[in-house]
């Protein structure tokens, strides 16, 4: 088996064909999905997938069908999937002793955003998974509703099919500490639909927003590291490194499977209101024993961790602007050019404008990402693009466009005379009213 590619223990890539004896497991999952679609939607739907690939799944099912499809596929493949996850621990991670495998498996079916944003808002989140049937009743009995947690607010009314995971650390959201995640591409996963990581922050103390369980607003991120995968490739990574998912801005459905391993008995962060409590031992899986362990949250808290002070990166400079309602212009004064002035925020309520210096002059755009309305001042920026800190999509600094036609930054006309700027935000009559 060839050595997997890796980066300082943060992540590694391998292909399922390198994992004996699971070389054909991707095809097995694909065939199971297509067979289930045929049962649900008929032979013509299955034929579309046979001819054009699993990436056309959104053409033959809708979001209301995803729950049934996922449940049927995971029910039939649970045992081989758990056995394959165990093989990753043995063959890829080199774990010799007994270890733990999360019983919670996720079949991720994410439609293209242009399709997903028009789907049924009552449909179930396609990014969630399922436990074994034998422990679902226990799980429901242990379920906790937290009065602070409000994910729907964060997603700004988007239907669940159009959600993307913001940057987070898994233990913030009830997963075990010290785990390793497996993110396995069943179909091709391009950069515009895959995982993103922030390895520069691997040892940083980061603030969690308990309302969302994502990174707190106001923390400026570096440019995300994109991790595209070919069909059959696996990303095995440390989920305590900040990571998220790129909103699917392609024209193809993204299909992947997620699994989780722990080298030792799982422990949980007491700051989170719930925990993933149902696990299996690798030895049981290898011996064919269908046994699920209930590791109660309150019995398995991790040792207290001394909270290091959060070292917040320098913020994008903000200048006050004056809105002239008679003319429809915002007036302001630019600071002197410096090493961190490629972007400047102009704050003139109700407007918040992002100025970017490009090779063709200064451009002005609305500072909010059009997907979730998140402040782009918190995102990374390079010579040609600015990156949303929430959904990781990039916007061209020259045009404001992203890889998704419906997600483009609102541009504003800007006039500059030395350090003095005027930004046209509206016709005079629109501002005056």
From TrEMBL:
InterPro entries documented for this protein: Rieske_2Fe-2S (IPR017941), Rieske_2Fe-2S_sf (IPR036922)
Keywords from the UniProt entry: 2Fe-2S, Iron, Iron-sulfur, Metal-binding
Gene3D superfamilies in the record: q2cbj1_9rhob like domain, Rieske [2Fe-2S] iron-sulphur domain
Domain Rieske: residue ranges: 333-423
Superkingdom field: Bacteria
Record-linked Pfam families: Rieske
Protein's recorded name: Rieske 2Fe-2S domain-containing protein
């Amino acid at each position: 088996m060839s050595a997997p590619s890796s980066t300082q223990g943060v992540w590694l890539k391998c292909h399922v064909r390198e994992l004996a004896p699971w070389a054909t497991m991707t095809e097995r999952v694909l065939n199971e999905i297509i067979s289930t679609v045929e049962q649900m939607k008929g032979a013509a739907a299955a034929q579309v997938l046979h001819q054009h690939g699993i990436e056309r799944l959104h053409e033959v099912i809708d979001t209301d069908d995803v729950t049934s499809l996922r449940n049927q596929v995971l029910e039939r493949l649970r045992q081989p999937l758990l056995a394959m996850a165990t093989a990753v621990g043995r063959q890829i991670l080199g774990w010799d002793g007994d270890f733990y495998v999360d019983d919670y498996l996720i079949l991720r079916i994410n439609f293209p955003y242009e399709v997903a944003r028009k789907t049924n808002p009552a449909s179930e989140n396609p990014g969630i998974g399922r436990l074994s049937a034998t422990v679902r009743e226990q799980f429901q009995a242990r379920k906790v509703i937290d009065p602070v947690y409000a994910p729907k607010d964060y997603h700004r009314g988007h239907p669940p099919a159009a959600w993307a995971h913001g940057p987070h650390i898994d233990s913030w959201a009830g997963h075990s500490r010290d785990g390793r995640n497996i993110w396995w591409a069943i179909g091709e996963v391009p950069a515009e639909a895959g995982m993103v990581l922030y390895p520069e922050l691997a040892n940083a103390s980061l603030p969690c927003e308990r309302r969302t369980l994502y990174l707190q607003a106001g923390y400026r991120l570096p440019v995300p590291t994109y991790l595209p995968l070919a069909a059959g490739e696996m990303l095995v990574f440390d989920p305590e490194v900040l990571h998220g998912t790129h909103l699917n801005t392609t024209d193809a459905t993204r299909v992947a499977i997620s699994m989780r391993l722990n080298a030792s008995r799982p422990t949980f962060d007491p700051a989170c209101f719930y925990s993933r409590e149902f696990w299996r031992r690798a030895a049981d899986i290898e011996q064919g024993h269908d046994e699920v362990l209930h590791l109660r949250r309150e019995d398995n808290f991790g040792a207290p961790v001394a909270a290091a002070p959060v070292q917040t990166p320098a913020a994008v400079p903000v200048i006050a602007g004056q809105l002239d309602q008679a003319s429809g212009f915002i007036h302001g004064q630019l600071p002197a050019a410096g090493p961190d002035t490629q972007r400047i925020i102009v704050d003139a309520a109700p407007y918040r404008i992002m100025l970017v210096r490009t090779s063709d002059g200064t451009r002005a755009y609305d500072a909010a990402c059009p997907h979730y309305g998140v402040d782009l001042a918190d995102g990374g920026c390079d010579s040609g693009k600015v990156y949303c800190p929430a959904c990781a999509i990039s916007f061209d600094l020259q045009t404001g466009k992203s890889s998704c036609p419906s997600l483009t930054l609102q541009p504003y006309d800007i006039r500059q005379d030395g350090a003095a700027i005027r930004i046209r935000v509206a016709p005079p009559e629109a501002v005056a009213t």
